[in-house]
Amino acid sequence: MLLYLLLLMGCAKKSMVQMARSAFTNQNCVKTLETYMRSAGCSNIQVQQRQHELVLRCQKPDNERKNIWESHWFRISPSFLNIVEEQKAEIESHTICKDEMHRLEAYPPE
Question: What pTM does this model have?
Answer without folding.
Answer: 0.82
